[in-house]
Amino acid sequence: MLFQGKDGELRIVTGAASPTLYYLEVLFTEMDFTAPISRPRTEETLVMDRGNFDTNAHYIEGNDEPRYSKIPLSFSCKLADTINTRVLHDFLEGKATITNAVGGSSAVVTTLGTTTIDGNTLPAFLPKVSSTTPVWNVEILWDGTNDYGLKYNEAYFVPGESTITESADGVMLSVNAQVLGDVTRITAFSSTTHSFI
Q1: Among 89, 140, 146, 150, fewest CB within 10 Å belongs to which?
Q2: From residue 186, how far is each of 33, 39, 104 by CA, in Å?
Q3: What's the rounded Cα separation, in Å, for the pair 164 and 84?
Q4: What is this structure's pTM?
């Protein structure tokens, strides 16, 4: 049977806080999640002798920038007055404390610097890194006979790049993020004990 958008669930997950992970399930998504399924690889260039392919022909590897560059992630959702949308807004705005959080501590822990790419931890980025830098993991999982999911480590919700649009049938929030960490396959959500809503 084919996966359908309604089979999926999207979560924004914080860093560990002794050792609890907190997450926010994004409700009323428009099933338009878009992100690469893996990080790009470095380019390889074929080197030949004056354009002639012979036994000396070989490949050289390009620079590492494509491997470590930020990759885009986006989704959108409709806002409902029955859900505490302030929590989602606080997540996207990068606040260190979530307003009126339900299910535990309102303090959140960034996931910045918690993953590696090819064994390398990325350096601090601008704006200057701090304990409250708004970087979270994004996990999406489609439920089926064999579950399929992806985890985007260290997603940075860039200030000013998420937008809100109103129409006659609802208010739409369009979210854009840049993934700093690695992309991995998952078959289950990260172990969490508290939801923010």
Answers
A1: 146
A2: 16, 15, 25
A3: 16
A4: 0.85
Burial bucket for residue 82 (CB in 10 Å: 0-12, 13-18, 19+): exposed
Residues 197 and 23: their CA atoms lie apart, in Å, by 9
Two tokens, residue 70:
């930020």
Query: Using DSSP, how many helices (H) and how many strands (E) does the chain show?
Result: 2, 11
DSSP string covering 56-110, please? T-EEEE--SHHHHS-EEEEEEEE--TTS-HHHHHHHHHT-SB-TT--SS-SB---
Q: Where are the domains of the chain?
A: 5-40+68-195
- What pLDDT is attached to residue 6? 84
Tokens of 116: 């590696």
Q: What is the pLDDT of residue 126?
A: 52
Is-contact 29 10, C-beta < 8 A? yes
* C-alpha to C-alpha distance for 33 and 40, rounded to whole angstroms: 19
